[in-house]
Amino acid sequence: MGLIDRATLSFMNSFVALLRAVNVGGTGKLAMSDLKALCEATGAKSVRTYIASGNLIFKSNQSKSQVKAALEARLDAFTGKPVVVIVRTATEMAKVAAENPFPSAPGNRILAIFLDELVPSNTLKTVTGQAAHEEIRLSKREIYVRYGEGMGQSKLRIPAAKEGTGRNMNTVAKLASMAAE
Question: CA–CA separation, 59 vs 67, rounded Å?
Fold first, then answer.
């Protein structure tokens, strides 16, 4: 990469994009290489993916709303169906990682659910199926859930989370680190 390219990248914003409800990585699914190419087609630079679960890290000179709209349009055209993309800046992703309300619990037992909008004020009143070992904490645009005995057997339902997408805290920390590079 030349000196001009490095200078240009240093003035671009770093973003993390999280896809919701998309199968990535296998046969008949959205391959990570296709996801990367779709992101690059929006003009994004230094595009990387992280694990086959719809995570993108990249730089762009566009605003967060422009990045979201461009990615959703490309994904819709490619998959033939609407795909929700939640976008956070590198700073916002680092804040989600730092504000983990359950820092002593294993990262794979904590889910951060990312929403586009503010967490509704009645979120906790609409929760059903919460077990005694499960805890929920609300942030501005994230819902944190600690699954004391794991997610696999949980009956927990959070209606406000339906429009969001979740990542465990190990993944959140890694994405924050990659976006900060």
Answer: 10
Non-local CB neighbours of 18 within 8 Å, separated by 6+ positions:
54, 55, 56, 85, 86, 87, 88, 114, 165, 167
3-state secondary structure of 180: helix
Q: Model's pTM, two decimal places? A: 0.89
Q: Three-state SS string across 86-139, please?
A: EEEEHHHHHHHHHCCCCCCCCHHHEEEEECCCCCCCCHHHHCECCCCCEEEEEC
Query: Distance between CA 147 and CA 6 in Å, rounded?
Result: 42
Q: Dmax of the chain from CA atoms? A: 56
54-86: per-residue pLDDT in tens?
899 999 999 999 999 999 999 999 988 888 999
Distance, CA of 33 to CA of 41 (rounded, Å):
12
